[in-house]
Every structure is written in C-alpha cells, then in structure tokens.
Amino acid sequence: MVEISASAVKALRDQTGLPMMECKQALLESGGDQDAAIKYLREKGKKTMAARADRGTDFGRMGVFTDLAKGVGAMVELRCESAPVVSNEDFVRLATDLAQQLATGPGANTAEELLKQPSPSNPKQTLADQKDELSNRIREVFNVGRMARVLAPAGAYAHHTGEYGVLVELAATGGKSIEPQVAKDIAMHIAAKNPKAVTKDDLDPELVRKEREILSEAARKEGKPENIIAKMVEGRLRNFFAELVLTEQPFIKDEAKTVGALAKENGVTVKKFVYWRLGKE
C-alpha cells in the first residue's frame, strides 16, 4: 500500500476544502496521485449529490452581469438548500460566473448548455465542475433556474440578499453613451418599485379599461356631472400610471422627476426589463 504523508493530505484538503479523512482515502485510492485523487473526489461527490437530487432548493440568489461597452447582460437564478449558503463567497462567485458566461459567451438555451461552458473565474474548468466541486464541499444540492440574456446595452441590479434581481435593456439616443450609474439606477429603481410595464402603451388595455370604469363610477357616486367625469378620470389615472408604469413613476433617488425624465435627460430609452424574485414567477 502506498504511504500517504500528512502534507499530501493537507495539500489536497487545501485544494478541495473536503475533510481530511476523505482526502486521505482519495489519495489511497489513487496511489498518492493528487490529480487522480481530485478526480476521484469529484466523481464520488457527483454520486453523493445525485442521491440527494430530490431535495428542495428553496433558497438561492440572482447572479447578474452587464458590460455596457460590449452591449451584453444576463441574469441567472442559482438555487440551494439552505439560507446560510446564499451569502457564501464561493456561491456568490458561482452565481456571478454563470451570469457573466451567459452574457459574454455563445449563449445557452438550457442550464445544461450553460454549465458545459468555461468558468469566467477559472477558464481551465467548466461551470459544471465549479458547481459540482462547491456542491460537494458544502454538501448541498445546487440547481440553476431561470436565465435571461440581453444582447444590447443593459443595466442590472441584484439585492444584497440575492432574493431578487433586475435586468433592463436600454438604448442610447442622441449620440450619447449610457452612463453605468444611470443604467444601474434604473435597474435599482425597478427592483424597489416593481413596475408592471415600461410605458403606458405597454400596460394591458383591459386593466386600464377596468380602472377607468372604477374611477368613473366613483366620480358619479361623488355626484360629479357627467360632462366633467371624463376629464376627472383622466386626471386620476395619472396616479394609476405612476404606480404601475416605469417611465411614469417618480424616480426613487429624486421624486421631483420621473424615471422617464431621468432617462430622457441622459439620452437613454428603456426597451424592456426582467424582474425576478426567488422562486416566484
């Protein structure tokens, strides 16, 4: 039997983060070869996690990435089993790597396609390897959930808890370049106010019709004459739009102006956005 030194076991532990006894066993099984031991631990970890695949992944975080110069952006939902893992530095890194690769790489239609691609933080390994190694070390199941990609200038924001995130597609107007802070501010505003549409025209017409009927009936109950109800309703609809429509909402950092005014003065047009909360459609 090959004799395994304590220093070899420690080196493998430092590299993998796994318990000493597991590292020693892996070296014994691999004849003292560090690379073979790492492969052994990886394969063993895959089998262990496969047996736990049906466990619930009710926690997680949104990974976001944008590059205004390249005109790309992405958001990826990465899920785990427990709350403490959400703030783990390596878990945060994995979520960001997934989003960065989705944004800057060839793209992917499924999590499996994305995981086959190289990790931005370590191009020598795939995202699948990065995920499996971390999953084996932490001993929790990880699942890649929803993915969104924008092939255009974009802003993004993920709450520090990772619970919700925003990806917003933008366009520059008037020959101006989009300032990174403006892109982030718009995404942050969406995260805070959760609008339902970019402009009034994007709102569901049936929703607007019902609100107009409600306001009209309320005005009648107030005893307002029919000939002025229409004007009153249009005025009161402004509050409705200011609640639901992004460009009509008061900007969270300066409520004296709307998000639409902020965008216009900075030469930006908001095209569309994605707002996700963990585990909610």
Note down, in words, how this protein is organized.
The chain is an alpha+beta fold. The chain has 2 domains: 6-51, Ubiquitin-associated (UBA) domain (Helicase, Ruva Protein, domain 3); 59-198 and 260-277, Elongation factor Ts, dimerisation domain (Tetrahydropterin Synthase, Chain A), CATH 3.30.479. The protein is 47% helix and 23% strand. It contains 11 helices and 10 strands. It has helices at residues 6-16, 20-29, 34-51, 83-86, 89-104, 111-115, 127-138, 180-193, 205-221, 226-244, 259-265; strands at 59-67, 72-80, 118-119, 122-126, 143-150, 154-158, 164-172, 250-251, 254-258, 268-277. A 3-stranded antiparallel sheet has the order 1-2-5. Strands 6-7-10 form a 3-stranded antiparallel sheet. A hairpin with a 5-residue loop joins strand 6 and strand 7 (164-172). Helix 3 (34-51) crosses helix 7 (127-138) and helix 5 runs antiparallel to helix 7. The longest helix is centred in the last third of the chain and has 19 residues, at 226-244. The model has no long low-confidence stretch (mean pLDDT 89).
Brief account:
This protein is α+β, with helices and mostly antiparallel strands. It is 47% helix and 23% strand.
Entry keywords:
2 domains, 11 helices, Tetrahydropterin Synthase, Chain A, Helicase, Ruva Protein, domain 3, alpha+beta, elongated, 3-stranded antiparallel sheet, 281 residues
What does the secondary structure layout of this molecule look like, with pairings?
Layout: H1 6-16, H2 20-29, H3 34-51, E1 59-67, E2 72-80, H4 83-86, H5 89-104, H6 111-115, E3 118-119, E4 122-126, H7 127-138, E5 143-150, E6 154-158, E7 164-172, H8 180-193, H9 205-221, H10 226-244, E8 250-251, E9 254-258, H11 259-265, E10 268-277
Antiparallel strand pairs: 1-2, 2-5, 3-4, 6-7, 7-10, 8-9
Helix pairs in contact: 1-2, 2-3, 3-7, 5-7, 9-10
